[in-house]
Structure formats: C-alpha cells, structure tokens
Write a structure and sequence with these properties.
This is Vacuolar protein sorting-associated protein 53. This protein is mainly alpha-helical. The protein has 28 helices and two strands. The chain has helices at residues 9-14, 16-123, 126-141, 150-180, 187-200, 202-226, 236-254, 264-288, 298-318, 353-373, 390-409, 413-439, 447-474, 486-520, 534-553, 557-581, 587-605, 620-630, 633-640, 647-657, 663-672, 678-692, 705-708, 717-720, 723-733, 747-756, 758-763, 805-825, and strands spanning 794-796, 802-804. It has a two-stranded antiparallel sheet. It is flat.
Length: 842
C-alpha cells in the first residue's frame, strides 16, 4: 500500500545503503576528531609536568642561595663580636670606675658635712645647720643600698643621732626661752631653729607646733575648764575674747618665729576650737541633766550658738586663704581633716538644736492665730486679680530666714526636723487660715475674697514645692529622700479647689430664681413644644453675668477652666435634680426639656469666650467637655419622651437609652412619667423583666448610676440644710436631691462635704450610686468649719460640734490630689499668667 507521501516500500529499501554509507562516513569523521583531541590533550599534560619540574629545581637553587647568605651573616656577626668584646669590657670598667669615684666623693662630702654639722649644732648656729642638714640627708639617701657595709651603717647611725640631738636641742631651746620669757631676745635664733625643724621633716615640725599650741592654751584650759563658773555658757564671750587676745599676741610676738608655710596661727585656732568644742559638749550634757527639772535656757543657748557662729565666721574670714587642718593634738588621727572652721565649735550644739527647733515651733504656733484674725485684704489696698493674702508671703519669708539660719547650724537631722515643723504649720495655715476664711461666713466669701484665697493657695502650692527643693539641696544626702512636703502642697491645692467651688456656688445662688421657675412649669399638662422655655433665658443670662465677673478676676487660665468645668457639672446635675422635681412629666414636657437642654448646652459652651474679643472661636476642648457632661441628660429625657402605650415601645426605649437591667430604676422612670398606680405599672414591669432576661440584654449592666442616683422624694429645708448645701453635696457625693427652698446658712457645711468627698465628685463625671439607689444627703450631721488655733486637735463647726483636724487635713489633701490632676490636664483659657512668685523672690 503506498505511503502517505507517495513513497513505496521498495523505494525505501533502495535508499538504505545510501543512508548506511552516510552514517559510516559521519562516524569516521567523529573518530578522527576524537583522536585529534586526545593527541592534543596528551601533549598539553606533558608540557605542564615539565614546567612544574623546572619550578621545583629553581626553588631548590633559591633556598641554597638563602642558606649561603645566612651562613655568611653569622660568620660576620661572630667576627664583629670578637672585634668589639674588648671595647665592651673597657666601657664597663669605665662605668664602674665613675660610680666608684662618685660614691667616694659623696662619702667624703657626707663625712665632712657630718663633722661640720656636729660642730655647728653644738654652737647653735642653726641657719648653717639647716643647710648642712639638708645636704647630709640628701647625701645619706644615696647610701641606702650600701648599708650592709659596716662603715656606711655606722655613719648612717651617727647621722640619725645628730638629727635626734638637733630635734631635742631645738625643742629644749624653745621650752627654755618661753619659760624664761626671752622670746624677743632670742627670736632670731628660734626662727633659724625652725629652719632646722623644717629640714628634719614633718614629724619634727608637728612636735614643735604641738608643743607651742599646748603651751599657749594651757592657761585657757585651766581657767575655763577647771572653774565651773568661768567655763559656763554665760562666759562664752570671755572665751572668744581670750583667744582673740592670744591671736594678737601671736601676730605681735610669735609670728616671726615660725615660717608662714607652717600656718601656726591656724593650727592654734584649730586646737582652740577642738578644746572649746569638747568643753561645750560636757557643759551641754550637764545642762540637760539638771536636777531641778528645769529645761535649758533656749535664749541663752541660741545666744551662745550665734556668738559661736560669728566667731567661726571670723576665723573663716581670717584663714580663708587656705584649707584649715586638724589640730596638732590630733594630727596623726585617721579621721578626715575638717575643711575650714564651719561648725568647728558649733558642732557641739547640734545634738541640742531640737530645743531651737522647738522654739521655732512655738514661734510659728503664735503666728497662725494672728494670721487668722487678719483680713483677707488690707483695707487700704486695691483688689487686683493677682493679689494674695499678705500673711502667706510673711510666713514664707519667716521660713526662708529660719531655713538659712538652720542650714548654718546643721544640715543633718535637725534640718530634717525643721522641715517637718514647716510642714506642720503649712498644714495649719491651709486649714486654720485659708480654709477658715473660705468657710467661716454663712453665704461664703465674696468673689474677690474667694479669688484672693485661690491665688494664695496657688502661691502656697508653688512655693511649698520650691521650699522642698531648697531644703533637699541643703540637707545631707542620706536624709534627702526623707524631705517630703507633697502632702502640704496637696492640701493647698485642696483649698484652691474649694475656692473654685465657692465661686461656682456664687453662680448657683444667682441661678436659683430660674430653677424655681422651671419647677413651676406644669410639665405634665404641656401640650405643644415651642421655643426654649422662659427659664432658660433667665438661667443663661444670670450664669453669663456672674461668670463674666468671676472670669475677669481669674488670672490663671487653668483656674478659669476649672471654674467653667465645675460650673457646667453643677448646673447639669442641678438640671437633673429639677427634672425629678418636675414630675410627673408628659412626653411633650420631656421633649421640651430636651430642647431646653440643647439650648443650655450651647450657652454653656460660650462660657470660655465671655471675656474674649468678639468673633473668638470657642475653645474646642471645653466644648467637648460640655458636650460630654450634658450628654447624660439625653438618655433620661429621650426615654421620658416615649409613650407608655404600647408598653413594648417604652420598655424598648428604656433598654436602648438607659441600658440597664434594674427594676428599681425602671420604676423611677415610670414614677417620673406619672405612672404610679400598681395596676398601670404591673404589666410594664412584667414586660420589662421578660425583655431584660432575653439573651440580647444579658450583657447590659445591672444598674445605670444616673438613674440610681435620682432621689424622687421631696425633702424639707430643715432636713436637707438648703438647696445650696444639697447641690454642693450632690456634686460632692454624687447624690442629687430636691429641697423645698434655698438656705445659704449651710454653705460652709456643703463646702466641707465637697472637700470630704472630693474623690467621688472629681473622679466621677456622673452622679454616684448610693447603695440600692435611694440617695440621701447628710449635711445636717457633718461639721465643716475649720479648727481653731488651739492645741486640742479639734475644729468647731457652727453648732459647736468638734471635728478632728487630721480628718479635715486628709480631706483637703485628697481633694487637692484630684483637683491638681484635673487642673494639670486642662487646656486652659483666659488671661496668661505672667507673674510667677517664688520662694526666693518673696
């Protein structure tokens, strides 16, 4: 059968020989190529082996040449060594000969100098002796390595004997001369003898100066130590007068005897200080152990201490050119040398400075009652926004003077004790002066008074921190961590917070007519929602008028911001109180209240720019704060807007807006809507319980603190202590309630409650939870007036009840910590603070 390409099998078989021949030719060509390549590769390998063998032969020849060079070098070295050996021997001989000649020459000089020194010492020619002695000592140093030679050892012993004889001879000359009173006649000889002592070294100089100091102070030690009357603290002036005469005698008669580099007068002063210090220690110990039981005379102690400090200062001034050294009596002591004369004698008083600290305590105790009786502002002084109470600057000036005085006396435990005394009376000033002026009036202080107290508290807060740093810079390092005035600073910040609350209270009082008007509106019978209610305009106008006046007086932006924040919190909480007071509230009434709340929020946001230039945009951070604060009104009012029919709608609205599972809170919402009858409440409550048990609502909290804090029971003024007290207490303890009328008589009580419960009020932006939800105010049972200056540790309130001072102080400190944290986070607005008061400037 033909192939597809038209080729037959016969044709294919005919082509096989041709193909086979072609393949054979190709195979032959490949074989030839392979053979050619093999022959070429064989030739290349042979060339490589030959080249390697040639390289090895060349290397062997190179190594042979190197070895030959090395052998020739060694031969050359041996030849040179043989040539220079004789030269080296000659050099060594020359060196040894030179050393021998030098040693013999020095030995000759030493022997000659020694013989001359012996002769001069016997004739007391001390100037020449000094020069020869220095030469002998220097020459003898060269023979230390030859002391194994008997002759050198004997010569060394003779030289040491001469030195010892000279030392004894000079000391004897000084003793005899001073004993006979012949110093002026023999001053040249004694001055030259000091040159000999200088040459003998430090030990000889120390012995002579020690003898001189002891000789000069012998009379002082006998007179002032042996006689009790002469050695008492009453005669401290005589001690210093005696030594001043001694220094004059030294300058006139003895200064020329001793070289200036010896500083004998300074040594004498140190010896006097050590002796006097030891005397004072014994005297003070005996005075503390008096058998009659009378305490030491503080005035006498302070007088002696002041005279001692003046004397030490005079010594410091006289010897300021160099560093004071220890007395020669203790020159060999291992103790550290005293630097200067500071506390050289006054150190003895340090253990008894607690008496001085106690006297400062008593002095400061007398100032607090005096400060409390002074007016906040002197009658003849005009008010300004940076004015502080004068007594605060006077107190810190007293502290500065006392601190400087104590730092001179002691930088140890007594300074630490003084710092605690300072802290004690800073607490007293905060409680018994600043807080007293803030809470002693029935209606609170005036706006100017509250601002002055705020400025003073801020000044005291800043200056207390500076005082702490100044004390830490002066006290000993190991006591530095124990100096802590943070609690006092917190107490002043607590007073500042209370002053801000007092300013807020002024605005609250002005707003009371507007709140009365709000409570008078028949919210349950309202049919239509119109524009804002009339009370809103009145409220905003009164808030802005009073706030404009107050903000002008606040020169620090952070306090202006604190006032506005506190005011918005207070007004929002009071609005909630009045919502509860307006029950029953219809759906239309709730809608009108919600509209009014939006108007109020917009008005509150303008507080930050009341005194700013027209067109100034509102502070964004403050607007955000106002929005967050007033936002808690929306859930309550939006829930009240929902009708009770159908019941499903009200229950769902409660779960969406109020968002809790508390049946008690749900009953309060029904009560606010006027659904008070049990038949009406029962189906709603059952439906609520059914819905809250569903899986979708299991994650809701047990109780909403806003609703739990609502107090729906109307209380009388007698039981609550007035609206102002209730409002302050509501914010302070997060428990709103409704009074019948405002009674300003209990503002002090409310202010104290604000300080007492500051943690809840400041830390929580919402109304707190009171137990099961029933809220009560206990202003009638709390006392607030700050304590008197008495020492019983108790304050007295308006009813004569006693209040522990410690409790008040801790409340102020806690209040201050929270307030300082919040004030520190405020962005601030208003005037810039260009006046920074400091402890140093005051």
């Amino acid at each position: 059968m033909p192939q597809a390409n038209g080729t037959t099998p016969a044709d294919a078989l005919d082509s096989v020989p041709k193909v086979s021949a072609a393949l054979q030719r190709h195979q032959d060509e490949l074989d030839r190529d392979i053979n050619s390549l093999v022959r070429a590769q064989t030739t290349t390998d042979s060339d490589s082996v030959r080249r390697i063998q040639d390289a090895k032969a060349e290397l062997e020849g190179l190594f042979a040449k190197i070895e030959g060079v090395r052998e020739r070098a060694l031969e050359t070295e041996r030849a040179i060594t043989e040539m220079t050996a004789d030269i080296k021997r000659l050099d060594s001989t020359k060196k040894n000969l030179t050393l021998s000649m030098t040693a013999l020459k020095r030995l000759q000089m030493l022997t000659t100098a020694y013989e001359q020194l012996r002769g001069l010492s016997q004739s007391r020619q001390y100037r020449e002796c000094a020069h020869l002695l220095q030469a002998v000592i220097q020459l003898m140093a060269h023979f230390k390595s030859y002391r194994s030679i008997d002759q050198i050892a004997a010569l060394s012993k003779n030289v040491a004997d001469v030195q010892r004889e000279l030392l004894e001879q000079v000391c004897e000359d000084f003793e005899v001369t001073f004993a006979r009173g012949e110093v002026q006649q023999k001053r040249s000889m004694l001055a030259e003898a000091c040159l000999v002592m200088d040459a003998l070294g430090d030990h000889a100089r120390s012995r002579l100066v020690t003898w001189y100091c002891n000789t000069q102070l012998r009379e002082y030690r006998q007179v002032f130590r042996g006689n009790d009357e002469a050695g008492s603290l009453d005669n401290i002036t005589r001690r210093y007068s005696w030594f001043n005469r001694m220094l004059k005698t030294y300058d006139a008669e003895h200064a020329m005897l001793f070289p200036a580099s010896w500083r004998v007068n300074e040594m004498l002063a140190n010896a006097f200080c050590e002796t006097t210090r030891d005397d004072y220690k014994g005297i003070l110990q005996r005075s503390m152990r008096r058998t009659d039981g009378q305490p030491p005379d503080v005035n006498l102690l302070l007088s002696c201490l002041q005279e001692t400090l003046d004397f030490e200062h005079s010594l410091e001034k006289r010897f300021a050119a160099g560093e004071s050294r220890s007395s020669m009596d203790t020159v060999t002591s291992s103790e550290e040398k005293r630097h200067g004369f500071s506390q050289a004698i006054s150190e003895a008083f340090e253990p008894y400075l607690s008496i001085w600290v106690e006297s400062q305590d008593k002095q400061l105790a007398t100032l607090i009652p005096k400060y409390r009786q002074q007016p906040i502002k002197p009658p003849d002084e005009e008010f300004n926004s940076q004015l502080v109470i004068p007594s605060s600057t006077e107190l810190f000036h007293q502290y500065r003077v006392t601190l400087a005085q104590c730092a001179k006396l002691s930088t140890g435990s007594r300074l630490l004790e003084l710092s605690r005394t300072f802290g004690k009376y800073l607490d007293a000033y905060a409680q018994q002066v600043l807080f007293y002026h803030l809470a002693n009036k029935t209606s609170g202080p005036s706006v100017e008074g509250a601002v002055i107290i705020l400025n003073t508290a801020d000044y005291c807060f800043t200056t207390t921190s500076q005082l702490e740093e100044k004390i830490k810079s002066r006290v000993d390092e190991e006591l530095r961590e124990k100096v802590d005035m943070q609690s006092q600073a917190d107490a002043f910040m607590g007073v500042a917070a209370a002053a801000v609350r007092a300013l807020v209270h002024k605005t609250e009082i002005d707003c009371e007519p507007a709140w009365r008007e709000m409570r008078a509106v028949p919210w349950s019978r309202m049919e239509n929602v119109g524009d804002q209610s009339s009370y809103v305009s009145v409220l905003l106008q009164r808030v802005k008028d009073r706030s404009r006046e107050i903000l002008k007086c606040l020169h620090k932006p952070q306090y202006a911001r604190a006032y506005c924040d506190n005011l918005v919190d207070s007004l929002t909480n009071t609005y909630i109180i009045n919502i509860a007071a307006g029950k029953p509230i219809s759906e239309t009434g709730a809608e009108q209240m919600l509209l009014d709340s939006y108007v109020l929020k917009k008005g509150f946001a303008e507080l930050a720019t009341l005194n700013a230039e027209p067109g100034t945009p509102p502070n964004a951070a403050f607007v955000k704060r106002v929005t967050q604060t007033t936002a808690k009104l929306d859930p309550l009012l939006k829930t009240l807007q929902v009708r009770a029919s159908p019941p499903e709608g009200l229950v769902q609205a409660y779960l969406i807006h109020i968002r809790d599972r508390s049946e008690l809170n749900f009953r309060k919402i029904l009560d606010l809507k006027g659904i008070t009858r049990k038949p009406e409440q029962h189906p709603l409550i059952e439906l609520f319980n059914a819905h809250k048990a569903s899986p979708s609502n299991e994650s809701l909290p047990a109780s909403n603190p806003l609703i739990a804090g609502l107090q729906l029971t109307v209380q009388t003024a007698a039981a609550t202590g007035g609206l102002a007290a209730l409002k302050d207490n509501a914010i302070a303890s997060s428990t709103p309630s409704l009074p019948a009328r405002f009674d300003p008589a209990n503002f002090g009580t409310a202010l104290m409650n604000a300080a007492r419960d500051a943690g809840d009020r400041i830390a929580s932006p919402h109304l707190g939870v009171g137990g099961s939800g029933a809220m009560t105010t206990q202003t009638a049972s709390r006392t607030t007036s700050p304590p008197p200056a008495g020492g019983d540790g108790l304050g007295i309130n308006g009813d004569g009840d006693r209040l522990p001072v410690a409790s008040l102080n801790e409340n102020l400190k806690s209040f201050g910590k929270f307030f300082r944290r919040d004030v520190g986070s405020f962005g601030g607005f208003g005037k810039k603070d260009d006046s920074r008061r400091s402890l140093d400037r005051r």
